[in-house]
Amino acid sequence: MSATMTIENADGPIGAAITGVDVAGALDDQAFARIEQALNERAVIVIRDQVLSSAQLATFSRRFGKLQVNVRAEANSDESPEVFWVSNVVKDGKPLGSHDAGRYWHSDLCYLEKPSKATLLNAVEVPEKDGETFGDTVFAGAAAAYDALSDGMKNRLDGLKAANGYRYMWNKKAHEFGKRPVLSEEELEKYPPDALHPIVRTHPDTGRKCLFVCYGYTHAVIGMDKTESDALLAELFDHIADPAFLYRHKWRVGDLLIWDNCAVQHKATFDYDTSLRRVMQRCTVEGSVPY
Question: By mean pLDDT, which of 176-180, 227-231, 252-256 is the weakest?
C-alpha cells in the first residue's frame, strides 16, 4: 500500500477524502483494496490531485468492473468511448458532452436492467470566480435514508417495484430546462424502455437495504393507481433529500470522485454563470440486477 495514503471521513454518514495516491501510476492491489473498502464504508470518496487523460481514467475505472458505454453516443469521448463528457462547453459549434446532466436527484443508469455499480467523475475544469468555486455535487445516503424510515413504511415498501424511465426523464428535462430537444414517442424508442426495480434494494456487497427511487427517473409504482403512486413517490423523494443524509462535494481541479450508485443518489448544483467553464469526464461501472 502507498505509504502516504491517508483517508479522512467527512461529517455525517457518507463521504471521505483520500490523498497520497496516484491512480494512473503503479497502484498495487493492497492500495486498491483499501480504496474499495473506503467506498463500501463511506459510499462517496474523493481522491485528490488526479490529472488524467480519458484513457487513464478508463484504465483505472476498469479495476472496479466492466465499463458501460452511455446511450448518448455523441457525448462520449473519441479517445475512449467508455468515457462520457459532462460540461457546459461548446466545441466546434457543438456541445462538448452533456450540458444538462445531474439536474435531478438520481442514481446513474437506474433506467437499465443492470444500473451502474459505481461512477468515477474526474474534474478537468471547475467553475471559478474571484477565488470561489461553484457547481458542487450533493449526495444523499440511500442506506441511511432507508434506516430512518418508520417500521410501518418499511413494511409498506417491502416487495414493491417501480418503473425507472430514460424516455420519461428525457422529455421531462427537455421541457423544464430547454437544453435538449423534445422527442416524439417514435424518436424516444431508440432509448431503453423502462426498467422495473425494487423500491428497496439490497446492496450486493454490504447487504444493507437502500432506497432506490430517483426523482428524475422513477415515475410509477407497479400495481398502484397514479394518485397513490405519485403520493408515495413524492414522500420518498422528499425523505431521501433530508439534510441528515447529505454530503456536499466542493470541487477542485484534479478531483476524482467515486460513488456507489446503490448506496447514494446525487444531484448537481447549477449556481454559476454559463460563462464559467465546467468540464468533467466520467466512467460508469456496470452493476448487477437489483434485488
Answer: 176-180
Nearest-angstrom CA–CA distance, 124 and 142: 28
Gap between the Cα atoms of 54 and 60, Å rounded? 10
- CA 25 from chain centre, in angstroms, equals 25
Q: Using the structure block, give the residue that is written with the C-alpha cell 473506503.
A: 38
Instruction: Name the grid cell of 52.
Output: 488524467
**287 CB-side CA count, 13 A:** 27
Whether the model pTM is above 0.85: yes
Which sign does the torsion angle of CA 219, 221, 222, 223 carry? negative
Q: Are strands 195-198 and 94-95 parallel, antiparallel or unpaired?
A: unpaired
Domains and CATH numbers, the chain: 6-140+246-264+271-286 (3.60.130.10), 141-240 (3.60.130.10)
7-13 contacts: CB < 8 A, separation 24 or more? 7/34, 7/38, 7/45, 9/42, 10/42, 10/247, 12/141, 12/244, 12/245, 12/246, 12/247, 13/43, 13/141, 13/143, 13/144, 13/245
How many CB atoms within 10 Å of residue 12?
16
